[in-house]
Amino acid sequence: MRPPIGLFGGTFDPVHHAHLRLAVEVREALGLAELRLLPCHVPALRAAPGASAAQRLAMLECAVRGEPGLVVDGRELRRTGPSYTVDTLAEVRAEVGPEVPLVWLLGLDALAGLPRWERWRELTDYAHLAVLGRPGAELPDDPALAAFIAAHAASPALLTERPAGGLWFQPATRLEIAATQIRAALAAGRSARYWLPDSVLDYIVRAGLYGSARPHAPH
């Protein structure tokens, strides 16, 4: 079986070190051939991003430049309407074929809200789900979600046996950085340095994103 491919979706508004540290750790831990970062076009369950699709794509490309195994995948930005994960997974599966293991990364908050996702029970038809959190973490009292987790409970060892169908809790460092605090700092004229790569911060200031247009340089 070919090495697995990881998929990590989000608004990335902007991408920061918490996203990137997770990506590097999980790629190494699971032996992924590559980990694709997929910025979504229109989030189905949250507010629209502050930066445009082209700007968020450009920031991601700045962030991963030179990092082996991290790849930017802009497919969701080329679609109109909400970005449904199940559609993305079906599309990637059709491209890579039936044998390559696919792993979709999601946080505990996303797992808790999974029953609100479009055709959520079909996700494991196309990929494994790696939940970035600890086993036994508190989740909502939702019988449908509990049954889904129990039915698909597995471990990363499944990556050498099956291309899809498993769900496990994947340990990873969670840095306490949020895109909301970065945007707020920039809008208030405060420094956002060390929360995100210098290359991304340079781009933000040059583009005047998040209210950051001002005469001083970022560093």
Walk me through the structure:
Catalyzes the reversible adenylation of nicotinate mononucleotide (NaMN) to nicotinic acid adenine dinucleotide (NaAD). InterPro entries: Cyt_trans-like, NadD/NMNAT, Rossmann-like_a/b/a_fold. This is Probable nicotinate-nucleotide adenylyltransferase. Strand 1 (5-10), helix 1 (17-30) and strand 2 (34-39) form a beta-alpha-beta unit. This protein has a six-stranded parallel β-sheet with strand order 3-2-1-4-5-6, with helices on both faces. It has 219 residues and is of the alpha/beta class. The chain folds into two domains: 5-169, HUPs (Rossmann fold); 179-211, no CATH class. The chain is built from eight helices and six strands. Helix 2 (53-64) packs antiparallel against helix 8. The longest helix is centred in the first third of the chain and has 14 residues, at 17-30. The chain has helices spanning 17-30, 53-64, 85-96, 108-112, 123-126, 143-152, 179-187, 198-207, and strands spanning 5-10, 34-39, 70-72, 102-107, 128-132, 167-169. Helix content is 35%, strand content 13%. The model is unreliable at 215-219 (pLDDT under 50).
Q: What would you report as the Rg, rounded to the nearest angstrom? A: 18 Å
Q: Count the helices. How many?
A: 8
Low-confidence stretches: 215-219
The averaged pLDDT comes out at 91
**From the coordinates shown, what is the CATH architecture of the largest domain?**
3-Layer(aba) Sandwich
Major sheet: 6 strands, parallel
Task: Domain count, please report it.
Answer: 2
- General shape: globular
Percentage of residues assigned to helices: 25-40%
Secondary-structure element order, N to C? EHEHEHEHHEHEHH
Instruction: Indicate the CATH class of the largest domain.
Output: Alpha Beta
The strand order across the widest sheet is 3-2-1-4-5-6
User: How many strand segments?
Assistant: 6
How would you classify the helix and strand content by structural class? alpha/beta
CATH topology of the largest domain: Rossmann fold
Which homologous superfamily in CATH is the superfamily of the largest domain?
HUPs
**DSSP strand (E) fraction?**
5-15%
Cα(first) to Cα(last) distance is 47 Å
